[in-house]
Amino acid sequence: MPSVIFRKGLDLNEAVAPALAEDYDSAIVNEIISHGFQRTRGRLTVRLAKEFGFCYGVDRAVDYAYQTRMRFPKRTVYLTGEIIHNPHVNDKLRTAGIRFLSDPHEPREPLGPEVVIIIPAFGVTVDELAKYDQFGCTLIDTTCGSVLNVWKNVERYAKDGFTALIHGKVHHEETQATASQSLNYPNGRFLVVLDRDQAQLVCDYARSGGNRHKFLEKFKHTASKGFDPDQHLERIGLANQTTMLMSESLEIGEMCRQAMIDRYGEAELDFHYRAFDTICSATQDRQDAVQNLVGSERLDLMIVVGGYNSSNTRNLARICTAKLPTYHIADAESLASLAEIHHRPVSGPLSNLSQSRDKQEVTVKEWLPLTGEVTIGLTAGASTPNNIIGQVVLRLEQLTRN
Ligand code: SF4
């Protein structure tokens, strides 16, 4: 077995605290928080959601990455991929000398006991972990406790003969890792649904069958090997990627529950359907806080800051878009001028990690009133550090200083 350290129980290491503060803290954000989550400069008022930015899982993962570099200064340290979905944080780790196995031009060294591998907050698949195990690498496992909790339940579904129906994005690292947990048992299987529409197809089939060929074609990339809807939708256990939209996950859960009642009757429900709450509390808190912000404050527009491949950031933007003009921006550079903003629309392709930033962005003109008072709501995804949020506030103030 590889040595696994830092899995739990370590508090913030005092040795890395100054480096973390220097890289990620923001005096402006601290000031905004201490003044009731708002700040007015000139004609601009910024109102910040009461929960925003780095979550406990991300805080811990980044902390462990810094500790790892410090603890093994002479050894090769690899991250399996992005530690979290924020390019600024990942680039800082590259600068600190941590290498990424996922980087296309990374010159790979042979894996072995001398190599240190950091597992990101989303976790990795069972097969990937087994590979590092085989090579005897030293593992620093930063998988978030909330993700481990989902895995535990998905594994139990497999053990008890339930198909794990996972509400998530099939290419997201966390969903891939979660789905793989169901294969720890010989008869384990999974099916990933992206949204309510896909869940409806599954519920319809579970309720009354349908066109098997069409169903398999639709879900050919999101179901486990050998998936048979005629057998494997008889017992469903619901799980979700921890960063999905809470309201949608709950709705999907209710749809599945009702489909199983319709097919097998209320008395048989426990045999055919299981569910548990797997949206993590940090995701839920950020979604609740932004709902409160857009629901109770008079805002001209919302800005949501975070990596373009960050699932939880995109879901925050989805919530806001339903209420008022909303711009999901990567950082202060997206605020090109008073006349132009670059942002990633909520309705764009879901997650295309291979696309460069400029290919994911669109430019919107006349996004900000040229004169008069303006109130902007602000929030940030769980992988966005405060220094990036602070830079956005400064840039907004610079643009409205006229
Ligand atoms: S979003 Fe939730 S599950 Fe993901 S790292 Fe943060 S706390 Fe953990």
The CATH topology of the largest domain corresponds to Cobalt-precorrin-4 Transmethylase, domain 1
Any idea of the CATH class of the largest domain?
A: Alpha Beta
Instruction: Give a count of the beta strands, DSSP E runs of length 2 or more.
Output: 16
Number of individual domains: 3
- What percent of residues are in strands? 15-25%
Bound molecules: iron/sulfur cluster
Strand line-up of the largest beta sheet:
1-7-6-4-5
Calculate the mean pLDDT score and round it: 92
**Cα shape:** globular
**Helix share bin:** 40-55%
User: Radius of gyration over alpha carbons?
Assistant: 22 Å
How large is the count of helical segments? 16
Q: How far apart are the termini?
A: 63 Å
Which ranges are low-confidence, i.e. pLDDT below 50, for 5 or more consecutive residues?
7-12, 350-354
Largest sheet: 5 strands, parallel
| Overall SS class | alpha/beta
CATH superfamily of the largest domain: 4-hydroxy-3-methylbut-2-enyl diphosphate reductase, catalytic domain
CATH architecture term of the largest domain: 3-Layer(aba) Sandwich
